[in-house]
Amino acid sequence: MTATIVRPAKRSDLDQLEAMIARVDPGMLTMPSSREAMAARIERSLAAFARGSLPPENECYFLVMEEDGELLGTASIFTNLGVERPFYSYRISRDSKVSPEQGVRAELDLLFLVNDYHGDSELGTLFIERKARGGGRGRLLSFARLMLIAVDPLRFGPKAMAEIRGFTDAEGRSPFWDAVGAKFFHMDYRKADVLSARDHRFIADLMPRYPIYVALLPDAARNVISRPHPDAEPALAMLKSQGFRYNDVVDIFDAGPTVEAFIDHIDTVRESVRMSAADFAGGDMRVHSGLIALASTSRFCVTQFARDEDLAAVLKRIEAGPSDEVLIYRLPEKRA
Questions:
Q1: Complete DSSP assignment for 36-59
Q2: Who wins on pLDDT, 119 or 85?
């Protein structure tokens, strides 16, 4: 994977990104679904990368994974959630009831509609072409977003989160949606999820304002609350390895788990080391493998290096000159 890099999307990527849309799973609703929407995403991202080092104001940083000139994946960071429009989730809360006279105790879970991720950044749009899966590419693409945060944490606020795709069956049906959302929205799961990507107000208008007792739901719905889709399990495991934790919050449509972490608790942000490119090239990098990024938002680029690689060639891959500052994250060998 020596020629693989992750970098900001460019206008010249539009044709390849448009072709990629047809191969994206319908459940990935943060991916633009038309050429026009993809072009708008690229422009929004270019503006985000071009702004100065400032607190977040609802930006989208759109990254692509490139190998020998071919685009093989995408990833994004969306900042300042819930400020311009609500970002709804269900928070699971435990209620305890006791009847001393009867010697009966009941503990029941309830789902509360919340907008708890106000001002946080979301990690999303993680997609890899099937032919490119394996070889560490998924980790490179996922962690590239964390390397971007490490380059300039001020841009991303105090906390990051990620909604993990929830369980759906072979036909794409969500047992949780069928038991909850469908009763209030009167539309299928996919249509409601697509609408929510454009306008969250209808969620507040139609969803029940009172908590939902989980015990009243059918077994099929209860059993998938906080359960990730099998295809999403690797992404969840990678985020957990970086310090992200599930905190009893799930997606309102498919009940997939939401994980979160304070920016300064993320392993990549906390453990990355800054140095000059010249020091990296002349240093003794005795590690199994690592990630290296240009420590510049305007020229951001990430790649992976191995112990036996020519470090000068690694720097060339990310177009780093001797005087450029780079960010190094040493990957733990057990996860490499």
A1: HHHHHHHHHHHHHHHS-S---SS-
A2: 119
In the numeric block, the tokens 């299928």 are attached to 188
Q: Is 278 helix (H, G, I), strand (E, B) or coil?
A: helix
Q: Name the more confident of 222 and 308.
A: 222
How many whole angstroms separate alpha carbon 301 and alpha carbon 232? 25
Phi, psi of 108, rounded to the nearest 5 degrees: -125, 140
186 is catalytic: no
Tens-place pLDDT, residues 263-321: 999 999 999 999 999 999 887 666 668 999 999 999 999 999 987 888 899 999 999 99
Cβ neighbors of 133 (< 8 A, separation 6 or more) are none
Determine the Cα–Cα distance for residues 226 and 207; give it in Å rounded to an integer.
19
Coil, strand, or helix at residue 202? helix
Q: Residues with Cβ < 8 Å from 163, sequence gap 6 or more?
A: 89, 122, 124, 251, 256, 258
Q: How many Cβ atoms from other residues are within 10 Å of residue 334's Cβ?
A: 7
Residues 6+ apart with CB under 8 A from 307: 285, 286, 287, 288, 289
pLDDT for residue 262: 98
> Which residues of 87-146 form beta strands (DSSP E)?
89-99, 104-114, 121-128
Q: Which of 305, 327, 328 is nearest to 1 (CA)?
A: 305
Q: Which of 118, 229, 265, 288 is catalytic?
A: 229
Between CA 160 and CA 77 the distance in angstroms is 9
- pLDDT of res. 335: 43
pLDDT in tens, 92-133: 998 877 777 776 778 899 999 998 998 999 999 999 998 998
Could you give the CA distance from residue 235 to residue 239 in angstroms, rounded to a whole number?
6
* Distance between first and last Cα of the chain: 13
80 DSSP 8-state letter = S
Question: Six-digit token pair at 73?
Answer: 């994946």
Distance between CA atoms of 199 and 250, rounded to whole angstroms? 19
